[in-house]
C-alpha cells in the first residue's frame, strides 16, 4: 500500500519527461554544415527555451536525407541544387527561384518543408593555387580546358557520382584529366593543393580557405553549376507540434551572406575556434 504513491510519482515524472519538447537538429559531415547546425540549434534554444538534441556531422547528402525522412532528425541545412539533382534526380536548372520552387514541390510528399534561404549560395568552386593560375594564365574553366597538360583533380567523395558533378563538368568544358580524380575528405583538398599532390580541386565557394590569396577560384564562365542556396529543411510534423519553431527558424532567413559564411568557415578551419563559439558570436550580432 505504501509503495503506490511512489509508483504513481515515478509514472508522473516519466510522463513529464516524455512530454518535454524535443527537437533534433542534424547536419552533414563538413565544417559549414556543422557550423550551420550549431547556429540553428542555438537559435532554437534561445528563442524557445528548450534543449536541442544535436546529431551533427552525420554523413553525406543521402544519409542526412534519410535521417530526416525517417524522423531521427527534425531538420538540417540543405542546398537547393543538391536536392534538385542528387535527391530528386531532376535535370539541372540555372534559375535560383525555379530550383527552390521545384525542391519545395518535390519534398512535399515526404512531409518536408523548405524554409526561405539563409542568404548565401554555396556553389561548387574549381580551385587552383594562385601562383599556378598566374604562371599558367588560367582564370576560367574554359582557360583550364585549353591547357595542354591534363589536370590532376581532387574531389570529395560525392562529386564523381552527382549529376551536377564530374561527368557534366567534363562534358561542358572538355577538361582533360590525368587519370581518375583522387577522392578524399573535403577538408583534405586544400592541403593536397598546397602539397602539389593535385593541381585542381572541386571545392565549395564558401570554404574558409578561399579567404586567402593562396588559392584562386576558376570562373565557371559557361555557367555549368546550378544554384546552391542553403535553406533549412524541416519535417512538417515537427512544425505542427512546435508552433514556435517556424518563427524562430525564419529569423535566420537572409541573414548569412557568402562572405559571412566563408568567414565562419575560416574561423573554424584556419583559426581553430570552437564551432559553438563561432555560432554564438554570429547570433550575438542581432537580438
Question: Can you characterise this structure?
Answer:
There is one protein chain. The chain is an alpha/beta fold. Helix 8 (166-173) links the parallel strand 6 (153-155) and strand 7 (182-183). It has two domains: 22-121 and 229-283, Periplasmic binding protein-like II (D-Maltodextrin-Binding Protein, domain 2, 3-Layer(aba) Sandwich), CATH 3.40.190.10; 124-218, D-Maltodextrin-Binding Protein, domain 2 (3-Layer(aba) Sandwich), CATH 3.40.190.120. The termini are far apart. It has helices at residues 3-18, 31-48, 61-70, 80-87, 96-107, 130-136, 141-145, 166-173, 189-194, 236-241, 245-250, 258-269, 275-283; strands at residues 24-26, 53-55, 75-79, 112-114, 124-129, 153-155, 182-183, 200-204, 215-218, 230-235. It is built from 13 helices and ten strands. Residues 1-18 have low confidence and may be disordered. The radius of gyration is 22 Å and the shape is globular. Helices cover 43% and strands 14% of the residues. The strands form three sheets. It has a five-stranded mixed β-sheet with strand order 7-6-8-5-9. A three-stranded antiparallel β-sheet has the order 3-10-4. The longest helix has 18 residues, at 31-48.
Amino acid at each position: 500500500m505504501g509503495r503506490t504513491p511512489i509508483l504513481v510519482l515515478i509514472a508522473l515524472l516519466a510522463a513529464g519527461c516524455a512530454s518535454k519538447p524535443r527537437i533534433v537538429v542534424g547536419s552533414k559531415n563538413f565544417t559549414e554544415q556543422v557550423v550551420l547546425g550549431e547556429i540553428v540549434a542555438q537559435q532554437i534554444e534561445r528563442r524557445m527555451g528548450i534543449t536541442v538534441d544535436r546529431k551533427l556531422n552525420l554523413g553525406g547528402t543521402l544519409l542526412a536525407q534519410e535521417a530526416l525522412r525517417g524522423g531521427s532528425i527534425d531538420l538540417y541545412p540543405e542546398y537547393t541544387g543538391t536536392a534538385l539533382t542528387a535527391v530528386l534526380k531532376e535535370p539541372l536548372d540555372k534559375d535560383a527561384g525555379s530550383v527552390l520552387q521545384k525542391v519545395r514541390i518535390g519534398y512535399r510528399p515526404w512531409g518536408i518543408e523548405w524554409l526561405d534561404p539563409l542568404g548565401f549560395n554555396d556553389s561548387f568552386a574549381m580551385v587552383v593555387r594562385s601562383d599556378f593560375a598566374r604562371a599558367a594564365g588560367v582564370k576560367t574553366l574554359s582557360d583550364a580546358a585549353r591547357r595542354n597538360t591534363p589536370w590532376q583533380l581532387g574531389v570529395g567523395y560525392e562529386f564523381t557520382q552527382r549529376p551536377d558533378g564530374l561527368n557534366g563538368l567534363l562534358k561542358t568544358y572538355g577538361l582533360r584529366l590525368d587519370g581518375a580524380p583522387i577522392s578524399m575528405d573535403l577538408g583534405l583538398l586544400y592541403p593536397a593543393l598546397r602539397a602539389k599532390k593535385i593541381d585542381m580541386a572541386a571545392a565549395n565557394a564558401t570554404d574558409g580557405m578561399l579567404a586567402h590569396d593562396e588559392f584562386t577560384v576558376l570562373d565557371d564562365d559557361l555557367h555549368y553549376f546550378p544554384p546552391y542556396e542553403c535553406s533549412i529543411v524541416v519535417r512538417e510534423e515537427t512544425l505542427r507540434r512546435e508552433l514556435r519553431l517556424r518563427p524562430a527558424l525564419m529569423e535566420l532567413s537572409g541573414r548569412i551572406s557568402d562572405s559571412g559564411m566563408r568567414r565562419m568557415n575560416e574561423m573554424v578551419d584556419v583559426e581553430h575556434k570552437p564551432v559553438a563559439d563561432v555560432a554564438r558570436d554570429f547570433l550575438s550580432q542581432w537580438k
